[in-house]
């Protein structure tokens, strides 16, 4: 099964993906293959992947340290130097085997080395499968500011094999689930009901949910590849969620939040704001809040925390002309982009979250 994202970067699943990958390697015959991993995917995923790939020449393994804290220009510089030292040329190929940090950073390194070499994403985390590796967004953080440096440039293909999920801790699975919940909130109530009925879900159901989430994202990206309008809806919960994630990432006294944990908070806050500004139904706000808090632990915020998080929002990539732009909902599946939100309501949203 495959999906097209903006006429490039088809997504293939399981064995079909490895067949397509090996066909691509045979037909394109890259001069060299560079396989980017982090220390976790080197240990847990490389052997399985290596058994599946068919390429006559030696493959160069490039390894980075795992974690969002390493998603920066310093790591990129090390990789650009390694590619240069290993004689990479314009016909080389980079394969990114890992979670969102590896696919975001690896895609950016490939897209900028010698003005761009081809790359393929093989996501190994649930978050990367349903979000980070699909849609052509590449990039790195600038200090504590999420994804400030990057380009939109699609992978040659994305290969999704849920077998890799067997290597993930439950916290990482929950982190990925947040993006699935987001896809549900911006798409349809039926899908929301399906993905929040966790007690009835089987591993087979998860395969189908991953495919459905990829379809939702691919459809949006195909219609709006450069994020001029519709694609902004994929940022639901992210305006505050990214600011929360950045704040916790750079304050050592705080417990670092995974991306999905921060976005889960951001979605509750955004849904409260939707009730206040877009007449989103109050009963659905309560239901969404309870469902999310049933999955993710509540996080405490002091007044100082909230003020610093609000200050960080000015760096959000959706902002323009000095305005902070939110994605809000009129109802589940009915989005409104470029919404202005007064700071007073943001404070009220945090107060609601603390008590929900």
UniProtKB/TrEMBL annotation:
Q: What is its EC number?
A: 4.2.3.4
Name one molecular function that GO assigns to this entry. Answer: 3-dehydroquinate synthase activity
Q: Which CDD domains match?
A: DHQS
The cofactors it requires, by name, are: Co(2+); NAD(+)
Question: What Pfam families does this protein's entry cite?
Answer: DHQ_synthase, DHQS_C
Q: List residues of the 3-dehydroquinate synthase C-terminal domain.
A: 176-319
Which keywords are on file for this protein?
A: Cobalt, Lyase, Metal-binding, NAD, Nucleotide-binding, Zinc
Keyword Nuclease (UniProt): no
Top-level class of the enzyme under EC nomenclature:
lyase
Q: List residues of the 3-dehydroquinate synthase N-terminal domain.
A: 62-174
UniProt xrefs under NCBIfam families: aroB
Role played:
Catalyzes the conversion of 3-deoxy-D-arabino-heptulosonate 7-phosphate (DAHP) to dehydroquinate (DHQ).
Protein's UniProt name: 3-dehydroquinate synthase
| The organism's taxonomic lineage, starting at the top | Bacteria, Pseudomonadati, Bacteroidota, Flavobacteriia, Flavobacteriales
């Amino acid at each position: 099964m495959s999906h097209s994202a903006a006429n490039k970067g088809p997504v293939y699943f399981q064995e079909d993906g490895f067949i397509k990958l090996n066909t691509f390697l045979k037909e394109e015959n890259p001069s060299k293959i560079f396989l980017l991993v982090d220390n976790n995917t080197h240990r847990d995923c490389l052997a399985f992947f290596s058994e599946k790939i068919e390429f006559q020449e030696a493959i160069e393994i490039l390894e980075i340290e795992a974690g969002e804290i390493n998603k920066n220009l310093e790591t990129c510089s090390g990789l650009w130097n390694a590619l240069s030292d290993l004689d990479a040329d314009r016909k080389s190929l980079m394969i990114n085997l890992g979670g969102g940090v590896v696919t975001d950073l690896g895609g950016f390194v490939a897209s900028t080395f010698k003005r761009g070499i081809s790359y393929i994403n093989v996501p190994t985390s649930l978050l990367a499968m349903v979000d980070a590796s699909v849609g052509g967004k590449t990039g790195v953080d600038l200090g504590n500011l999420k994804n400030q440096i990057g380009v939109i440039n699609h992978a040659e293909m994305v290969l999704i094999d849920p077998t890799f999920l067997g290597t993930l801790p439950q916290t990482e699975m929950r982190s990925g689930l947040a993006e699935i919940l987001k896809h549900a909130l911006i798409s349809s109530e039926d899908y929301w009901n399906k993905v929040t009925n966790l007690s009835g879900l089987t591993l087979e159901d998860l395969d189908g949910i991953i495919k459905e989430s990829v379809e939702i994202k691919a459809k949006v990206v195909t219609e709006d590849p450069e994020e001029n309008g519709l694609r902004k809806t994929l940022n639901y919960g992210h305006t505050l969620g990214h600011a929360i994630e950045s704040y916790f990432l750079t304050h050592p006294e705080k417990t670092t939040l995974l991306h999905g944990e921060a976005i889960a908070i951001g979605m509750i806050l955004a849904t409260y704001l939707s009730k206040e500004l877009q007449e989103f139904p109050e009963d659905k706000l309560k239901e969404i809040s309870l469902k999310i808090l049933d999955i993710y632990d509540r996080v405490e915020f002091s007044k100082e925390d909230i003020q610093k998080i609000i200050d960080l929002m000015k760096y959000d990539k959706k902002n323009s002309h000095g305005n902070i732009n939110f994605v809000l909902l009129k109802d589940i599946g009915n989005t409104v982009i470029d919404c202005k939100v007064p700071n007073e309501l943001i404070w009220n949203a945090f107060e609601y979250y603390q008590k929900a």
